[in-house]
């Protein structure tokens, strides 16, 4: 059986306890009403896109995923139009619920996504 590094990495991370929260209808309160920053991956299992952000962002941002096949109403409400869609949510500002759009991350490159999130976190820290 043929294997490559990505396959082995997915298998290893699949065997470890996940740092990524699976969300459904609780997306609205868990993410949008949170004071903490979140990165959410809206996906469909048939899409084939699987990126592991957990090791690089552990302790810096909460991570979540929403299976749009299982939770179509959540993804429609979040106005997801393509898979995967990765969004960053800064956390509530002045007690106001976050915008459903968040900050859309316009790349599928794992290293670039991590760079964008870390940059957003730095800006957020500077604002405080």
Automatic annotation (TrEMBL):
UniProt feature coiled coil, ranges: none
Organism superkingdom: Eukaryota
GO biological process: IRE1-mediated unfolded protein response
Record-linked Gene3D superfamilies: Glutaredoxin
Record InterPro entries: ER_disulfide_reductase (IPR052460), Thioredoxin-like_sf (IPR036249), Thioredoxin_CS (IPR017937), Thioredoxin_domain (IPR013766)
Pfam families associated with the record: Thioredoxin
SUPFAM superfamilies given in the database record: Thioredoxin-like (SSF52833)
MF term (GO), any: oxidoreductase activity, acting on a sulfur group of donors, disulfide as acceptor
Domain spans labelled Thioredoxin: 25-99
GO CC entries: endoplasmic reticulum lumen
Protein name, as recorded: Thioredoxin
């Amino acid at each position: 059986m043929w294997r490559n590094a990505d396959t082995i990495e997915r298998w290893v991370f699949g065997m470890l306890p996940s740092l990524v929260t699976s969300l459904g209808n609780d997306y609205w309160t868990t993410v949008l009403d949170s004071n903490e920053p979140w990165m959410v991956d809206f996906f469909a299992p048939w899409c084939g896109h699987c990126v592991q952000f957990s090791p690089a962002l552990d302790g810096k941002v909460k991570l979540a995923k929403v299976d749009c096949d299982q939770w179509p109403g959540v993804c429609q409400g979040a106005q997801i139009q393509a898979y995967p869609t990765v969004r960053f949510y800064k956390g509530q500002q002045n007690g106001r619920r976050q915008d459903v759009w968040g900050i859309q991350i316009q790349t599928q490159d794992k290293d670039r996504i991590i760079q964008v999130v870390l940059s957003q976190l730095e800006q957020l820290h500077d604002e405080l």
